[in-house]
Amino acid sequence: MSIWFVENSQRVFERRFTCTVAQVMELCSGGELFERIQEQQRYDEQSAAILIKTVLMAVDHCHSHGIVHRDLKPENFLFTSTNPDAVLKIIDFGLSCSYTAGQVLTSRVGTP
């Protein structure tokens, strides 16, 4: 079996596996959005707007590809590094599902 990995939409890697399941993830060493909110305690309006815009753009990207995350919370967003301007990434697609435009999702899911 041949599996292709895409990294940052620029580099593609091929690995050959025999009866193996592999999960490849990017290292995000900056911690959760939840932790950063607790550490900072306060965000000015501009910083909060940038974070919310990033979250909404990530959700829009998923929706435009027919994916619903279904467990959005600050713990499911990671920063790529500890730098103040680190990239924010969405994680944990364990409850996600595909959908088509106009489809109504009725099942209750998410972290209680």
Can you walk me through this structure?
- It is built from two helices and six strands.
- The protein has helices at residues 33-40, 45-64; strands at residues 2-7, 11-16, 67-68, 77-79, 88-90, 97-98.
- The strands form three sheets. It has a two-stranded antiparallel ribbon. A two-stranded antiparallel sheet has the order 3-6. It has a two-stranded antiparallel ribbon with strand order 4-5.
- β4 and β5 form a beta hairpin.
Throw out a few tags for this protein.
112 residues, alpha+beta, Transferase(Phosphotransferase), domain 1, two-stranded antiparallel ribbon, two-stranded antiparallel sheet, 25% helix, 20% strand, disordered N terminus
Give a topology summary.
Elements: E1 2-7, E2 11-16, H1 33-40, H2 45-64, E3 67-68, E4 77-79, E5 88-90, E6 97-98
Antiparallel strand pairs: 1-2, 3-6, 4-5
Short description, anyone?
The protein has 112 residues and is α+β, with helices and mostly antiparallel strands.
